[in-house]
Amino acid sequence: MLPYEELFSWWAATITTGIMFLIVVSSAIYYYRKRPASTKTDAPKVIRELAFVWALMALLILYLVSINLGSYLLFAAGNIVVEALLLIYVYIKR
Amino acid sequence: MKEQTTNDDRFWTLSETEILQELKTTTTGLPEDEAHIRLEKHGYNELPREKLSWLQILIRQFMNPIYLILLASSVVAYFFGEFEQSIAIVSMIFLSAVLGFYNEYKAEKIVAALTERVSLKALVTRGGKTYDLSARELVPGDIVSVYIGDVIPADMRLIEAKDLQVDEATLTGESFPVDKISASLKLDHPTPQQITNHLFMGTVINHGSGKGVVTKTGKQTQFGAISWSLTRPHPPTDFQKGLTSYGNMILTFTVALAVGIFALNMLVGKPMIDALLFSLAIAIGLVPELMPAIVTICLSQGAGRMAEKQVIVKRLVSIEDFGTMDVLCTDKTGTLTEGKIILREYPSLRDVEDDRILTYGMLCNSAILNDKIIGNPMDVAIWDYALKAGKNELAKPYKRIDDVPFDYKRRLMSVVVENGGRTLLITKGAPESFTDKCALAEMNGEKLPFEQVKGEIKEKLTRYSGAGYRVLVIAYREIDKRPNYTPADETGLTMLGFLVFTDPPKEDANKAIARLKEMGVDVKILTGDNELVAKKICEDIDIQCRRIVTGSELMAMKPEELSQVVNETTVFARVTPDQKLAVIKALKANGKVVGYLGDGVNDAPSLYEADVGISVESGVDVAKEAADIVLLDKDLMVLANGIIEGRKIFDNTLKYILMGTSSNFGNMFSAAAASVFLPFLPMLPMQILFMNLLYDTANMTLPTDNVDDEYVMKPKKWDMNFVRKYTLFFGPFSSLYDFLTYGIMLFIFAASPSLFQSGWFVESFATEILVIFVIRTRKTPFYKSRPGKWLTVLTLSCLAIGVIVPFTPLGEFLGFTPLPPTYWLLLVLMVVTYLLLVDAGKVFFYKVCGYNW
């Protein structure tokens, strides 16, 4: 049983709102981006360019699950994977 | 566009008699009693001064939202018992206010310098008597006589002019002296340069003498209008406007968040006093209390570095605008050019340099040679050239017998010289005056009938004037020796060649202009000179001239037309100080950050109005006083160095703002959210203030940070929209990791309030302080962009203090508890993920989405 269990739903709602807010803002700034948009729809490109948003979603799931389980080992391992993914993203995009 | 007051009265259209009638005076002057009545009516002939009390100037310094927020914070800090913080905030405000106070006092000094220049005596005729009178007592209708070397005491309409030439360079920017006449002029919308039957206050008689009737005194004069324009408060720079708008944004956020937190805490049943103190602590946490200090340190250090490069910064706040400047308007004379007329060449009619032309130019010359050569600038230029070229000896064999002085009607002067038994009449003057004086023209040693080669000569002259040169013709003839000579002897001459004059561009001007272009600064020329001269300078210094607009054309323009024209025009020729000002205002209204480089009295209003007023050391005092920046070195390349320095300072100030608005906002937002659902405060007010203190200490070294090279290659403007987007995007990252820490502390470590607060303090501080290294550059931190040495040392030191403090007695005093070892492992992982996430966010924001400042 989680300590402070009565607060978990509050906490989960808060962190989910935080990440969702970030995803919405990221999508909005991508939509209104200053770079000239491609004339044809290029779905895979959009998916690639929004990899950052997918990383955020992965983080949300990782944090919710690992903390719900109270497992700092899962938390640590998940973080290391996300760090590796972010490094690859930065390397490719930069 | 509206022109100056002079144009309203159209005095230049009236004859000498009519102007006297109009001003109800006569050639014997005003009766003394009438003069006194007029003095009471018009006031003293002195420049206007609207004095602000020192208290008014001081109070004005605090009318800035950031200062108001800071003052409120210092009061709150005082009531929290944070006396040191309260005093520190007040000291920072005081320091910045003193700086602003000093700057505004400068305006007073400018007017004093103008006033000093015109505290003169005038030779006035009143009631038939002529005597010296203090110039401040002159009234419209007074008759004043002027002679060579006199500074004109008021605006006057000439009623007599004898060979009168006036140097109006400081007022109009015209390099060459202007011939003055007393006859009426039929002009509809003349610029002051075209009103040749007027003398303007503050200009200097270069040649001849004259008598005029005073038309305008004091602030009604052209000179007075300039002075008046400098008495108004200095317009805020683009950077100041940006800071104000940033302050307003912070104020809105802070008030909204503090009120919201207080209301929510009350709603969930927290004690009122706790809710109040916590919401106020959050408000303090949001306030960028270091802003004035960061800005002041950035600016002072920048000013010091610029001084080493011979650039003196008089108004600190202008440095940042120096960096963001994207349009540089410049006067021509004395800034792009040497401001001194030189003899460029002396070609014969067949374009071959002929020493006889130079020799005759030296002989037919009114300059006086003492320790220094004085006289008409063109006569001085001839002697300067000859002395430098070692050709002054050429004139020695000649003995001067007589001369026929210059007068305006002939626009010629002649001398009679003797050499080896030959007597020669040499005549020098304006080309158009020789039309009926020459019978022959000497070409390759052969004398041809003048009529035969007239067309060819005219073509050459057109070419010279088209290239912006001023030309004098040299002609001669043999003449009998006799006791005296008259203008009637100036006939049957043989034209020998030309003396070609120019005001040359500064040696490094083209390099400096090219460098400015590279740096994204568009250069525009605003000059009192004519369009041909201005076009020539553009060619000489490689400015691509897109369009030339004259003062007369500007005058006929509507504001909306002007707004468009200023963007597409490179050269504004024959423009008055008012028109220069209007161009600068229009460019500013179009969103440009405008610099103005000038050195004359006529430049003072523009220097004052521009975001960055730049003058040169050789400029007149008034221009230097009105300027924000003075270049001590004649080398214009120092301009580019100054701009780079300004851009570095802008970037370092921006780093503070972006960090403050992202990590600070994020932290405070998460604290606010936590306060609502947690059964205890997520961080004690005292802990928030301690974190702020450590964070601010690290930030104090930001002014010394390195700036990426490519950042300084383009001008950056204040962009609040960018700040908002940046805050909205990067702010939530730090909130996210705060929420995560809450989860870890609550659900993994089952933390007590004190442990929770300690854990969050360390995470919040570590992420807040380390993100400096990520946000300070758009490149890969450390690898592609190294932070400044002091920033690194102090940031890491403050981080060490923040990490250690929970284990110390100070930590105990602040309410912290030592953290378990497992937490440190998770903390490292969280901080690394956070920093990588922000770095990835940067790539997404700048590279993928293309947002840029």
Protein architecture, described:
The complex is a heterodimer of chains A (94) and B (853). Chain A has four helices and no strands. Chain A has helices spanning 8-31, 43-49, 51-69, 72-93. The longest helix of chain A is centred in the N-terminal third of the chain and has 24 residues, at 8-31. In chain A, 22% of the residues are buried. Chain A is mainly alpha-helical. Chain A has one domain. The radius of gyration of chain A is 16 Å and the shape is flat. In chain A, helix 1 runs antiparallel to helix 3 (51-69) and helix 3 (51-69) runs antiparallel to helix 4 (72-93). With 853 residues, chain B is an alpha/beta fold. Chain B folds into four domains: 1-226, Calcium-transporting ATPase, cytoplasmic transduction domain A (Distorted Sandwich); 238-311 and 645-848, Calcium-transporting ATPase, transmembrane domain, CATH 1.20.1110.10; 326-338 and 506-610, Rossmann fold (3-Layer(aba) Sandwich), CATH 3.40.50; 342-502, 3-Layer(aba) Sandwich (Calcium-transporting ATPase, cytoplasmic domain N). Chain B contains 29 helices and 25 strands. In chain B, strands 8-25-24-23-9-20-22-21 form an eight-stranded mixed beta sheet, with helices on both faces. In chain B, strands 10, 13, 14, 15, 16, 17, 18 and 19 form an eight-stranded mixed beta sheet that branches. In chain B, strands 1, 2, 3, 4, 5, 6 and 7 form a seven-stranded antiparallel beta sheet that branches. In chain B, helix 10 packs parallel to helix 24 (685-699) and helix 25 (720-748) runs antiparallel to helix 29. Chain B is elongated, with a radius of gyration of 35 Å. The two termini of chain B are 35 Å apart. The relative contact order of chain B is 0.09. At the A-B interface, helix 1, helix 3 and helix 4 of A face helix 23, helix 25 and helix 29 of B.
